[in-house]
Design goal:
11 strands; 5 helices; alpha+beta; 4-stranded antiparallel sheet; 5-stranded antiparallel sheet; 23% helix
């Protein structure tokens, strides 16, 4: 499921997004190996910067509206809010086809590993049956995934940690994943987590794979992105 209100002519709008966007993925200069979110492209630390970046890449997101965390809960539903919200610094929405309301989310950079471990624990306990459903960049994410690999964004895949079930709520719950209408619905399907053995710069199913901050988690860029 994907977050945002679905516009008419989704396929054409998605094609426009894919065709007009350029890949921004790439490492940044550091004193050592480039790992985790730092390897995902330029750091965007405010929703204003994300909106400007989107306008450059797509010609859309003309007006980003700052949102409250109460609205974040309405946007994602209670379970996804529980897993995302503690690690979110700020968020906003704007219109980028095919999304009427695309979420622009800035994370607390020093809590990315904690966020990933929390999701691993929820996976291990059965609280959720899938991975995080945002498209991730360097310290930020977009709530949609359709066509966003063309922007150089990555999916986050986390294998459930064997010893993490005790740290999560063991009661299974329906996990709302993003839709194109801004709400969330129950997702009864499950997906396998990312492998913990991925190395920086490797390919996974034709996509680019990089280690994430937490062991057992990787950032995967699906095939189809443009440079």
């Amino acid at each position: 499921m994907r977050v945002g209100v679905m516009l008419g002519g989704c396929a054409a709008a998605a094609a426009l997004l894919v065709g007009s966007a350029a890949c921004s993925a790439g490492g940044s200069a550091t004193s050592g190996p480039t790992l985790g979110a730092t390897a995902l492209g330029p750091p965007l630390t405010t929703t204003t910067q994300i909106a400007e970046w989107l306008r450059e890449k797509t010609g859309e997101c003309a007006q980003a509206e700052q949102r409250t965390m109460e609205q974040f809960a309405e946007f994602l539903g209670p379970l996804r809010t529980k897993l995302y919200a503690p690690y979110v610094a700020e968020w906003a929405t704007c219109k980028v086809g095919p999304y009427e309301r695309l979420g622009l989310v800035v994370f607390h950079r020093d809590r990315l590993a904690e966020f990933q471990k929390s999701w691993q624990a929820a996976r291990a306990s059965g609280e959720v049956g899938d991975d995080p459903d945002f498209g991730f960049g360097n310290g930020f994410a977009l709530s949609g995934t359709l066509g966003l690999e063309s922007l150089g964004l990555h999916h986050l895949r986390c294998s459930p940690a064997a010893d993490s079930a005790s740290t999560a709520n063991s009661a299974p719950a329906a996990d709302g994943a993003p839709t194109t209408d801004g709400g969330s619905t129950a997702n009864s399907g499950s997906a396998t987590g990312g492998t913990s053995t991925a190395e920086s710069g490797t390919e996974d199913g034709g996509g680019h794979t990089l280690p994430a901050e937490a062991p057992g988690c990787v950032y995967i860029q699906p095939p189809g992105h443009h440079h």
